[in-house]
Amino acid sequence: MAFTERSEKTREAILRATRRMLTMRGYEATTIRAIAAEAGIDPSMVMRYYGNKEGLLAAAVDVDLHLPDPNNMERERIGELLAAHVLSRWEGDLSDEFITLILRSASTNSAAAEQLRRVFADQILTFVRAVAGEDSHTKWRAAMLSSQVLGLAYCRYIVNLPAMVEMDASTLAATLGPVLQHYLTGELDKPLHE
Length: 194
Known about the structure:
The protein is mainly α. The protein folds into two domains: 3-60, Homeodomain-like (Arc Repressor Mutant, subunit A, Orthogonal Bundle), CATH 1.10.10; 70-185, Tetracycline Repressor, domain 2, CATH 1.10.357. It is built from ten helices and no strands. The chain has helices spanning 3-25, 32-39, 43-50, 53-60, 78-91, 96-108, 110-132, 138-158, 162-166, 169-185. Helix 1 (3-25) crosses helix 4 and helix 3 (43-50) crosses helix 4 (53-60).
């Protein structure tokens, strides 16, 4: 096995162990030693790859939403398609355990909150700019879009609001779609429907 392959496997083992420990214990109670023990490696290896606990946390909660190119989406349905995409990421590639980890960590730890802000600001803001261009409302659009997406995740995966949990992903996307559409393409200083 090549050195880089071995390094990559070690990095992945560290990240998996970190996510498990954060989910079970939370940020404050998770230590570098505990992560190393869970991964079956020496604590110095964790420090070698990630520098410190904050660097490790940033890597562990780094989320790529793999947002689609809005130019390849039907403009009239972009809100619904975006909602469906985000839900499919959370309930497919990203497990709801991972989403739980991210949301819980961000609510109790400033470094995790900053990481989540960076992920959403970079990815959502880029998406909004591609849809709506750059204007005085671009950051508002991205903020409102993020509030809806994060609010949905919080209610579905953390609070386990019964109606949110029971609703299938396609119904959720169809329900949330018009709101996201308004934030992306509507006039923000006017009501959704006049």
